[in-house]
Amino acid sequence: MVQWILFKWRLAKLERDRAAVLKAHQKAIKKAKADEENIQLIQGLHQDQYFEITMLDSTRASLVTRRLLSIAYALMLPTPQDDYWERCEVTGYRVLTDEGIHLLRRSIREERKSRREAALAWLAAITGVVGALTGLIAVAIGQLF
Q: TM segments (predicted)?
């Protein structure tokens, strides 16, 4: 639970940072265009924006990949094959592609569903046994009095 909260907090922070970078760069680009500064400065601002956004997106992809892999390892699920991995442009880390993320999330959901169904089957059986024992005890106590 704590890991999930930390993951969501980090993900939200990355999204806030991304929005702040976009806003700051758009403001700087708009100012540069209004002042009719040279085209090279405007292109440089666009490149800076692209680099910072790519860095944040790479960090996000790495964060999501690590989270899904930790869940998959805990559930003892196989990880996707090499076709579902890519090398991150900026950081150089290997991260899951969108298809790999989809595949791993689907297998995690299926595994959790099957475990939940097994637990619910046991819970139903135990509830039935407890109900039967309660009935027998009630009948036995009724015979005594």
A: 119-141
